[in-house]
Design brief:
By secondary structure, the chain is mostly beta strands. The chain has six helices and 34 strands. The strands form eight sheets. Strands 16, 17, 18, 19, 20 and 21 form a six-stranded antiparallel beta sheet that branches. Strands 1-7-6-3-34 form a five-stranded antiparallel beta sheet, with no helix packed on it. Strands 2-33-32-31-30 form a five-stranded antiparallel beta sheet, with no helix packed on it.
Length: 501
């Protein structure tokens, strides 16, 4: 072998030694996400959190808070996706992180803390995933005693009589300290109802009464638990509503006199996590229960064409007809595992999103007829409205939405939609900004519907920072009155609650 060939072979051998460890060790899901995150900054919305508690810290405030806006915006969402070299594959599985944005004359203060559920504490001590998850496969999971063993308390948050609760779809509410966000523990509303599901979307009456439900279907049983909690935080009534067939629901709607539960039909596969086995059934009708608030054991059942909705907006009734707004998803497979590519660290094509559309469900109480009515409103989710809106007509809806040019496969703006007038106003945060749910906050002392502000959180992926926007609800096209920025980014959350000072 001549010298040149020998040196070439040696160089190749050395290069092989350097590459071999990478070839011998298969890329993990954690590695793949980190690589994707480096290439696509918007994936910060699905990064795993790097601590248990953050703040309290002051924020950089642009503009001025409007006079009268004082209180705390609480937000909740999945945030811990990785442990011991493993990464969840489903967005809904991450352990919950609750934020508190405290607003007042002194400015804005932010803090955040992981919810100390039983699951979180056990896995924190072990340094790895131990328990089954709703959508991800876990290697050699421990056996569970009840659904609270896997409760991640990661979906929403609500306050009742000064008490703060982190909520999940299929387990107990977890009480938190409203100032420090320390976890106080799971709540049992009535003796013998330990670990009974208390869902993530309670609805509030003007007198402070809270309504909620818990689906037994997701636990392998049948029926809905209906909860009525008084303004003082004590259970007033509970009712088991038998259901005629399996039906999935994440939220519900409410008029002045009725609760409305829309059950999306599904079939279950034989093995795997819940969301892997869940198969929505477009060949079957939705079943809808209309339940009088003064007769929880006397529902009236309707059937409508198949429709899959996670979230509902307002509902009203007039002249024997109930109408409620819902965001329907056309791609039900994608709806079962939203943003699955982002969880893997993979980019997703940015296309005109016509898969999520605003729809009205019309229920004629006289004829028993039910039908979906489509509106030309697409690419939105998480609808909110002013609860002071009249109960005999549609309310103005507020929702994060796709607005204009964007470089992220997520909402980049917010829209105000008035279906009665056929009017839509919107604000675009930017091509690389991800917009979350925007809550309506009434102006103190005002009784006029829609007189108030929108509070919405955003993630600026270009600058790797999270922030809070305050907009005039009647002039959202003017953009934020004030913006508060944190020096870092946090994973995207789901739902929140504003508690006035």
């Amino acid at each position: 072998m001549n010298r040149r060939r020998f040196l070439g072979s040696l160089a190749a051998a050395v290069s092989g030694l350097l590459i071999a460890p990478r070839l011998l060790r298969a890329e993990t899901a954690v590695d793949a996400f980190a690589r994707g995150r480096a290439a696509h900054p918007y994936l910060a919305g699905w990064q795993s959190i790097d601590g248990d508690a953050f703040g309290p810290s002051e924020v950089v405030l642009e503009g001025r808070l409007p006079e009268g806006l004082s209180g705390t915006l609480y937000r909740n969402g999945p945030a811990l996706f990785e442990r011991g070299g493993q990464r969840y594959t489903h967005w809904f599985d991450g352990d919950g992180l609750v934020h508190a944005w405290k607003l007042g004359p002194q400015g804005i203060e932010h803090r955040a803390r992981m919810v100390g559920t039983s699951k979180f504490r056990r896995e924190q001590q072990a340094g790895r995933f131990l328990l089954p998850a709703a959508g991800s496969r876990i290697e050699n999971p421990l056996a569970v005693r009840n659904n609270d063993d896997v409760n991640v308390a990661n979906t929403s948050v609500t306050a009742i009589n000064g008490r703060l609760f982190a909520l999940w779809e299929a387990g107990s509410a977890y009480e938190l300290h409203p100032d420090t966000l320390d976890t106080l523990g799971p709540v049992t509303w009535a003796s013998g109802m330990e670990a009974a599901p208390f869902s993530a979307h309670p609805l509030r009456e003007g007198d402070g009464t809270t309504w909620n439900f818990g689906s037994l279907d997701v636990l392998g049983g049948s029926g809905l638990l209906i909860w009525r909690i008084g303004a003082d935080g004590h259970l007033l009534e509970q009712q088991l509503l038998p259901t005629p067939a399996p039906g999935y629901l994440h939220a519900f709607a409410m008029t002045e006199r009725h609760l409305v539960f829309v059950l999306t039909p599904y079939r279950m596969g034989d093995s795997g996590p819940f969301f892997e086995r869940l198969k929505f059934a477009p060949d079957l009708p939705c079943r809808i229960a209309v339940v009088p608030k003064d007769a929880l054991d006397a529902p009236r059942w309707f059937e409508a064409d198949f429709g899959m909705a996670y979230h509902f907006g307002d509902a009203f009734e007039r002249e024997g007809v109930i109408e409620l707004r819902a965001v329907l998803h056309s791609d039900v497979a994608d709806a079962v595992s939203p943003m699955a590519a982002a969880m893997r660290g993979e980019p997703r094509a940015i296309v005109e999103d016509r898969g999520a559309r605003l729809t009205t469900l019309r229920l004629d109480m006289k004829s028993g007829h039910a039908q979906w009515i489509d509106h030309d409103q697409y690419g939105l989710e998480f609808p909110q409205f002013d609860p002071r809106s009249p109960g005999d007509r549609g309310a103005r809806l507020y929702a994060p939405a796709n607005v204009g040019e964007r470089e992220v496969p997520y909402f980049n703006g917010v829209a105000a939609i008035d279906l009665q007038r056929g009017r839509r106003q919107q604000h675009r945060y930017g091509a690389q900004v991800l917009a979350e749910e925007h809550l309506f906050v009434p102006r103190p002392g005002s009784r006029r519907a829609n007189d108030g502000w929108l509070l919405g959180t955003v993630l600026d992926s270009a600058r790797d920072r999270s922030g809070l926007a305050v907009l005039d609800a009647q002039r959202i096209e003017d953009g934020p009155i004030a913006m508060a920025w944190l020096p870092r980014s946090f994973p995207l959350g789901f739902h929140g609650h504003f508690a006035p000072a």
